[in-house]
Design a protein that fits this description.
about 220 residues, DNA-binding
Amino acid sequence: MGEEGDRLSDRLDRAFFCQPTLQLARALLGAELVHVSADGVTAGILVEVEAYMGPDDLAAHARKGLRSRRTEVMYGPPGYAYVFQVYGMHFCLNVVSGPPETPHAILLRAIEPTEGLSLMARRRGVALPPRDAPRFQRQKALLASGPARLAQAMGVDRTQYGWDLVDSPLYLCRGRSPVAESELAAGPRINIDYAGDWRDKPWRFWIRGNPHVSARSRSS
DNA sequence: AGCCCGATTTGA
DNA sequence: CAAATCGGGCTA
């Protein structure tokens, strides 16, 4: 109780999303992602994100200024949801960054679940053991570690495409941010081997040592 | 640790 | 028509 009120007063506003993209990506670590849906409330602390910076970044969907119904929202103001589908069955949630006509986005790769864990488990189609069971921490980490798991656990699909995170049931709040500089880690992004010179850019950011960082990213 | 596969959409 | 900002299930 009172949790919603506390969160709303700490809700991240437009000014927050107006930071330069790499700075915003780091600032998002420790922030809490919240979705107030018809099925209930789910929330979690962001522990891993990646920046994509079209049109130059060849890993970005907006590379070379690609503009389509899919990428359109990235050409608008920051703080909106860019949701896309990959491999025919998964959805991934991004926060639009950069001013209008600058198609940047930040992929939300993993959260540490804080609220609505049973709803997350139901959406994911997995059973969550009792909190005191030895398997609990491990299963909890499987709920939303990885961009498609995060989206599924949070009830995000194409429905949320274009939602304004500043003014919608899907939003961000201060949570535990800002994270101390010493807790911040950076490295290359995942699964973008096709991106030429941009493949090795250290534009993936995560909270060092956090067990909820997605498996393929945990090192260093 | 590694391979394979799914089920859709996009862009070349 | 190939490839995709991935995850699950299997083999071992």
